[in-house]
Design brief:
single chain; 411 residues; mainly alpha; two-stranded antiparallel ribbon; globular
């Protein structure tokens, strides 16, 4: 009898282990590419699958911040918002052609969904047709769609000519909105960079104005003011640095008039990447400072973008950046209330409505997709194959010796 019970117990334990491995085969290494893919898929699937099936407006909750200024309007614009924010983060991954059999199958599914989703969003006969002329917020959200296409030319190449034309007109439609005198200047400039890349004409002045004004707002040590006054928040990472970098990459192909400015932007990009890495605590938390903290891991948009572009400064290894970003991802997604019925909640660590800003809706938190940008690097790239290393906070707060931080004058 005891022998039979012991045999049964061994069988149950083995079955549980096997079942657990099948259910979650990547939990053993949470800095692995598989872990990142799992989290990306969990976040993006409800959005892209729904839009591909022309049912986003049916499935997507109509949630806004408790401090919302105009609830009806914020709900109206949430669809362009969620599309742009998800695409801006996953688009580099869509352009790859390698990976494991499972990853390639997943990518094929997302490619199919994305192309059909864009068709539905831009087809006036579709249920999920998205207007780009409802208000100034759509200038913001169109720019994230522009970012996605600049990060992934594959998307443009696989759209049919009719949908390409609709997208160009949709982006141009947002020119009617006057940007707020802040990082919004970069939204206008990014849309023009998209047009410079994929259409026959673009507005040079909108780009030049953004470059010249941001130069005036540079305050030193790799950071910019977001408008006439400095505020301590993460907008240097949410928007300013990655947008300056992305626009620069396009305009550098058109003219050499900005060479000296671009040289400074690149140095500032590197310095701010160093600052961001130092802000990641030993457990993946980071200071919940300033507005828009419900964007979660997008606080490290710039660090992820620098890794994707292979532009990390010498002070940062790919192994430590991968580990640090993985820790942020793990922390910001681990709360049981991070998702409600598969949709992201408004919060930083789970559902925290009090952290919302007046402009937040159900689409807003999806800017966190930008933390997944390094998935646009091949699985054989050194970002994924290099040895995992402890990031600065892990080393310092465990008593290890480490390099001190050093401010830089980049004028």
């Amino acid at each position: 009898m005891m022998k039979n019970v012991w045999t049964l117990w061994i069988f149950i334990c083995f079955a549980a282990m096997t079942y657990g491995q099948k259910r979650n085969p990547i939990a053993w290494k949470e800095t692995s590419r598989a872990f990142w893919l799992k989290e990306m898929d969990r976040m993006a699937r409800p959005v892209m699958r729904s839009l591909a099936h022309d049912s986003l407006k049916i499935n997507m909750p109509q949630i806004t911040s408790v401090a919302v200024d105009n609830k009806e309007h914020r709900i109206q614009v949430q669809y362009v918002e969620v599309l742009g924010r998800v695409l801006s983060g996953i688009s580099p991954w869509l352009a790859l052609n390698d990976g494991s059999e499972e990853e390639q199958a997943l990518r094929k599914q997302y490619r199919n969904w994305t192309i059909q989703a864009l068709k539905n969003a831009l087809d006036s006969n579709a249920n999920d047709f998205m207007r780009f002329d409802l208000g100034g917020q759509q200038l913001v959200d169109a720019s994230f769609i522009s970012v996605a296409f600049l990060r992934c030319p594959w998307l443009w190449d696989h759209l049919d000519p009719v949908t390409q034309g609709h997208l160009i007109e949709a982006i141009k439609t947002t020119r009617q909105f006057r940007p707020v005198f802040s990082n919004w200047l970069l939204f206008s400039a990014m849309n023009e960079a998209f047009l410079a890349q994929y259409s026959t004409s673009w507005d040079v002045m909108r780009v030049d104005y953004a470059f010249q004004q941001l130069e005036q707002w540079y305050v030193g040590d790799g950071m910019y003011m977001d408008g006439p006054h400095y505020a301590y928040d993460y907008y240097n990472s949410y928007v300013i640095h990655p947008f300056l970098s992305g626009i620069m990459d396009v305009i550098d192909q058109k003219t050499k008039n900005y060479d000296s400015m671009f040289a400074k932007i690149k140095l500032r990009n590197q310095r701010y990447a160093i600052i961001l890495e130092r802000l990641i605590n030993t457990d993946g938390t980071f200071p919940p400072s300033g507005r828009s903290v419900i964007y979660r891991g997008a606080a490290f948009h710039h660090l992820a973008d620098m890794a994707l572009k292979k532009r990390l400064p010498k002070e940062l290894t790919e192994g430590q950046v991968r580990a640090a970003l993985s820790a942020v991802m793990r922390k910001t997604f681990e709360s049981p209330s991070t998702y409600h019925q598969n949709w992201l909640t408004i919060g930083l660590y789970g559902d925290q409505p009090g952290l919302g800003d007046f402009y937040n809706n159900q689409g807003s938190p999806y800017l966190c997709s930008t933390i997944f940008l390094p998935l646009g690097l091949s699985e054989t790239d050194s970002f994924w194959t290099s040895k995992e290393e402890e990031w600065s906070s892990k080393r310092i707060w465990s008593g290890q010796d480490w390099k001190k931080d050093q401010s830089k004058v980049i004028q």
